[in-house]
Amino acid sequence: MALKDILVHLDYGSQCEKCLALSVDLAVRHGARLTGLCVVTLANTPTFVPTELVNREVTRLKGRAQALRELFEKRASDAGLRHEWRLIDNTEARADVTEIVRTHAFYTDLLVVGQTDREHNDGSVPTDLPNRLVMESGRPVLVVPYAWRYTEVGRRALVAWNAGREACRAVNDALPILNQATSVRVLALKGKDKLKNHGELPGADIAAHLARHGIEVEAEFGTATDIEVGDMLLSTVAAEGIDLLVMGAYGRSRMREYVLGGATEHLLNHMTVPVLMSH
Length: 279
Fold this sequence. Notes:
Helix content: 40-55%
Mean pLDDT: 89
Oligomer: single chain
Shape: globular
Low-confidence stretches: 256-261
CATH architecture of the largest domain: 3-Layer(aba) Sandwich
């Protein structure tokens, strides 16, 4: 599979320009068509607010959306990309923003979305937008950290491998990007109680599979609990200069991860590089 359709969700957060720059770069490298999506919403505005104030807010939000459109079209045009801008006016319907983005993601190869900055969120984007899109879109989701300094992505990749269905999906979805990487590391992680589906040598089978796709791979394995996995991955990212993490998301229910702790929730809250997730 090649990346031929990339969708980037653009909002007003600090990561917006990073999402756009990353998406343009990927679209250029893969010869893909790039679509920019912006949802203008009043979903979090109380219905009892005076009409005059509502109209003023709608005008302000549409002005910001127009600025995003101009930025998107300039960057895409300068890069010579086939591109499309989609503006969804959700000010009257006040539908679920996540459902809107999810529906547009159905018809794309990759969705790029920013990590939600919970401390500086103005309410225009649900705080759990990336989490839900990973679960509901049926597409690989590339989540961009708000605190990340933009650099080229996908040259030094780390694959988190637990021999589960979700990890298998993520590896397959990431193949077009991994094929262009100069370095790919597989970190096979097993629970402390059993090997599960890892085989005699954890990481060897998935490394061999990637090698058949012409990808040079280094593999290693470690032992960790669910709670420890997130920190282990972040440590490896920092130590090895990784610029992309590939992993399966929510191998158990999202609520269970939220309550008991889990790698997906941990990474979505503490990511330091873009993370490609599949469920």
